[in-house]
Amino acid sequence: MSEKLRERVQQLAAIWGPSGREQRVADALRAMITSYVDEVRSDRFGNLLAVRKGREGGRRVLLSAHMDTPGAIALNVSEKGLIYLAPVGGLKAYHLVGRRVEWGSGATGVLQCEHGDGEVSFKKLFCDIGAASKEEALAKVALGDICTLAGPVEVWGDRLVGPNLDNRLGCAVLLEVAEHLRECPHTVVFAFTSQGEVAPRGAAVAAFGAEPDLALLVDSALSGDQPGVRQVASRLGGGPSLRLKDSGYVAHHGLAERIAAVAEAGAIPLQRAVSPTDSEGRAVVSVGPGVPTAVIDIPVRYQGTGAEMANIRDAHGAADLLLKLLGGSLELG
């Protein structure tokens, strides 16, 4: 397995880049992917698009992963310098008490909750950046600034543990594919998309501009091998997971069959799951005349926390699957 994939996940997960503020992540991805593709550009929505040209007669494939992470936006500051917040994306307040965060300004802080009846909600959650007054806090964090969970991604054998794995894992998989994609008959548009955590707008914009014949989205999804998630079949270490359905999307049958056949032929473990959470699939599938779309997930435990957990072998499996898929025919039945 490539050590570079693990290193890229760790490097990308450390970059501040909440929904709508992804420029630092995009800059890092641009530097990483430029030597593997024929052109790189950004669109007006904030997506980063890198094109690897194929042969005449090949298909045009959108390979997409959202690059933002969830965060919390500064709403108000108390006279004592405590910053009150609202969520940006899928953070849950009860996961956040005691967690360290980073602001876009570079300020760091810790999240805490007001004492009371034990209920934890964003109405009671605040960030303490060590300021002694409202004026001192506002000199470091302006209203409207966004913080994200901070901390390193640690390596526990095959497992990665830390914040922001969703969906910097997917971005790292796209980089792995770009680096190792050799002879490919198809034109591949690598799209690192904006605002995937708040709504799948970035993926829809990217698909509209790319006009693909089909789309393959790489995302992180709730793993079923954790307490209270009995309805999800996937598990860490079982391989990438083909998303059959979620709240707004159903996999294209022909494309799903092609993915399953390639996985079987290449002896790549492939899980299948129905996800209780949304994905960018629903936005891409209905663009223009319609785009045959599949979502390949990397299972992640404890999503939206400072200790997300994934198995690096599942990410490698996703990259291997995509490389074999792109190297062959993509005519769909």
Explain what the structure shows:
With 333 residues, this protein is of the alpha+beta class. It has two domains: 3-69 and 163-326, Aminopeptidase, CATH 3.40.630; 71-149, Peptidase M42, domain 2 (Elongation Factor Tu (Ef-tu), domain 3), CATH 2.40.30.40. 26% of the residues lie in helices and 29% in strands. The chain is built from eight helices and 18 strands. The protein has helices at 3-13, 23-33, 134-140, 165-180, 201-210, 253-265, 281-284, 312-326, and strands at 39-42, 48-52, 60-66, 71-77, 82-88, 100-103, 108-113, 125-128, 146-149, 154-156, 159-162, 187-193, 214-222, 241-246, 249-250, 271-274, 293-300, 308-311. The strands form three sheets. Strands 1, 2, 3, 12, 13, 14, 15, 16 and 17 form a nine-stranded mixed β-sheet that branches. Strands 4-5-8-7-6-9 form a six-stranded antiparallel barrel. The protein has a three-stranded antiparallel β-sheet with strand order 10-11-18. Strand 10 and strand 11 form a beta hairpin. It is globular. The mean pLDDT is 94. Belongs to the peptidase M42 family. InterPro entries: Peptidase_M42, Peptidase_M42_aminopept, Peptidase_M42_dom2. GO terms for molecular function: cellulase activity. Pfam families: Peptidase_M42 (PF05343). It is an enzyme of class 3 (hydrolase).
